[in-house]
């Protein structure tokens, strides 16, 4: 039964492919949507051919059904999920693969939303001396200081922080486990380090209910801070800073990358810090700096127009 193959497929994604829980959950949602489409059209999995996939994409776009109107990027991910699933079925269970020559729709490059340095400072400089404020400041400082993904930050343990000394200086780093289980080491600047140390010495010992708790960031019950809580902390701080736009942990990551490139950092270094597998992914941030150069040139040079 294909339902049994689905269970095997998700085990394959998490164990053999090493995909994160969030990515596996996205594949699961995509495939549930696809099987819903098959059900309402009274189709079996072995009746799926390329032309049926075209119909599915049309349905997703809302031409045949308005229940699941989603963006082009999500549609592209749906196609990738289907290709992975049918490739698995073909390899492991001898199914015909209707997705061999079927590709996701092309998605135009979108510039990530980055905050200005002043906007970042307005978020980070909100004061507070209670246990939760110290924790929140450390979280925000670490997001901006490292450019790490929110999941990477909340999965940090206290043992992932280390300090290395040489003759000239000492550098404090965090060991981050990124997508696919790949680890990288990212330095922490002095402001981030001060905020983290304040949290570790003044807040975390009180928040921790269990002496053996290894999680770096804890909630008020002493458990590991959740992804949703981290999102709420960032959004709340941004609102308190008077920022009208929606600010997320990913906004901090985008800002980290953009500000590094604005400051002259090498793109290969930024790639390594962000944990991008390909420099092509990092290059989208250069479009932001190019746009800013173009705007400055247009407004300042007497013969730019």
TrEMBL record:
<comment type="function">
    <text>Site-specific tyrosine recombinase, which acts by catalyzing the cutting and rejoining of the recombining DNA molecules. The XerC-XerD complex is essential to convert dimers of the bacterial chromosome into monomers to permit their segregation at cell division. It also contributes to the segregational stability of plasmids.</text>
</comment>
<protein>
    <recommendedName>
        <fullName>Tyrosine recombinase XerC</fullName>
    </recommendedName>
</protein>
<dbReference type="InterPro" id="IPR011010">
    <property type="entry name" value="DNA_brk_join_enz"/>
</dbReference>
<comment type="subunit">
    <text>Forms a cyclic heterotetrameric complex composed of two molecules of XerC and two molecules of XerD.</text>
</comment>
<dbReference type="InterPro" id="IPR004107">
    <property type="entry name" value="Integrase_SAM-like_N"/>
</dbReference>
<dbReference type="InterPro" id="IPR002104">
    <property type="entry name" value="Integrase_catalytic"/>
</dbReference>
<dbReference type="GO" id="GO:0051301">
    <property type="term" value="P:cell division"/>
</dbReference>
<feature type="domain" description="Core-binding (CB)">
    <location>
        <begin position="1"/>
        <end position="90"/>
    </location>
</feature>
<keyword id="KW-0238">DNA-binding</keyword>
<dbReference type="InterPro" id="IPR023009">
    <property type="entry name" value="Tyrosine_recombinase_XerC/XerD"/>
</dbReference>
<dbReference type="GO" id="GO:0009037">
    <property type="term" value="F:tyrosine-based site-specific recombinase activity"/>
</dbReference>
<keyword id="KW-0159">Chromosome partition</keyword>
<dbReference type="GO" id="GO:0006313">
    <property type="term" value="P:DNA transposition"/>
</dbReference>
<dbReference type="InterPro" id="IPR010998">
    <property type="entry name" value="Integrase_recombinase_N"/>
</dbReference>
<feature type="active site">
    <location>
        <position position="250"/>
    </location>
</feature>
<keyword id="KW-0963">Cytoplasm</keyword>
<dbReference type="Pfam" id="PF00589">
    <property type="entry name" value="Phage_integrase"/>
</dbReference>
<feature type="active site">
    <location>
        <position position="149"/>
    </location>
</feature>
<keyword id="KW-0233">DNA recombination</keyword>
<keyword id="KW-0131">Cell cycle</keyword>
<dbReference type="Pfam" id="PF02899">
    <property type="entry name" value="Phage_int_SAM_1"/>
</dbReference>
<feature type="active site">
    <location>
        <position position="179"/>
    </location>
</feature>
<feature type="active site" description="O-(3'-phospho-DNA)-tyrosine intermediate">
    <location>
        <position position="285"/>
    </location>
</feature>
<dbReference type="GO" id="GO:0007059">
    <property type="term" value="P:chromosome segregation"/>
</dbReference>
<comment type="similarity">
    <text>Belongs to the 'phage' integrase family. XerC subfamily.</text>
</comment>
<dbReference type="InterPro" id="IPR013762">
    <property type="entry name" value="Integrase-like_cat_sf"/>
</dbReference>
<feature type="active site">
    <location>
        <position position="253"/>
    </location>
</feature>
<feature type="active site">
    <location>
        <position position="276"/>
    </location>
</feature>
<dbReference type="InterPro" id="IPR050090">
    <property type="entry name" value="Tyrosine_recombinase_XerCD"/>
</dbReference>
<feature type="domain" description="Tyr recombinase">
    <location>
        <begin position="110"/>
        <end position="298"/>
    </location>
</feature>
<keyword id="KW-0132">Cell division</keyword>
<dbReference type="GO" id="GO:0003677">
    <property type="term" value="F:DNA binding"/>
</dbReference>
<dbReference type="InterPro" id="IPR044068">
    <property type="entry name" value="CB"/>
</dbReference>
<keyword id="KW-0229">DNA integration</keyword>
<dbReference type="GO" id="GO:0005737">
    <property type="term" value="C:cytoplasm"/>
</dbReference>
């Amino acid at each position: 039964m294909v339902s049994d193959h689905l269970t095997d497929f998700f085990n394959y994604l998490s164990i053999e492919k090493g995909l994160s829980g969030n990515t596996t959950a996205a594949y699961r949602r995509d495939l549930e949507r696809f099987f819903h489409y098959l059900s309402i059209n009274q189709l079996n999995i072995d009746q799926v051919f390329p032309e049926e996939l075209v119909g599915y994409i049309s349905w997703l776009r809302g031409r045949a059904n308005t229940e699941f109107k989603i963006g082009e990027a999500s549609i592209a991910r749906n196609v990738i999920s289907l290709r992975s699933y049918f490739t698995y079925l073909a390899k492991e269970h001898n199914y015909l693969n209707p997705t061999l020559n079927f590709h996701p729709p092309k998605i135009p490059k979108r510039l990530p939303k980055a905050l200005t340095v002043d906007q970042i400072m307005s978020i980070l400089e909100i004061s507070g001396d209670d246990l939760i404020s110290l924790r929140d400041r450390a979280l925000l400082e670490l997001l901006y200081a490292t450019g790490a993904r929110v999941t990477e930050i909340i999965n940090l343990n206290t043992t992932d922080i280390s300090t290395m000394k040489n003759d000239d200086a000492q550098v404090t780093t965090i060991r981050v486990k990124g997508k696919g289980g790949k680890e990288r080491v990212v330095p922490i600047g002095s402001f981030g380090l001060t905020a983290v140390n304040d949290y570790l010495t003044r807040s975390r010992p009180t928040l921790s209910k269990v002496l053996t708790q290894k999680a770096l960031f804890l909630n008020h019950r002493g458990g590991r801070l959740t992804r949703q809580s981290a999102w709420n902390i960032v959004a709340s701080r941004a609102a308190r800073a008077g920022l009208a736009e929606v600010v997320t942990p990913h906004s901090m990551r985008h800002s980290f990358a953009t500000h590094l490139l604005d400051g002259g950092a090498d793109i290969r270094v930024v790639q390594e810090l962000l944990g991008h597998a390909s420099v092509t992914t990092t290059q989208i941030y250069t479009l932001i700096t190019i746009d800013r150069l173009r705007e400055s040139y247009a407004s300042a040079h007497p013969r730019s127009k």
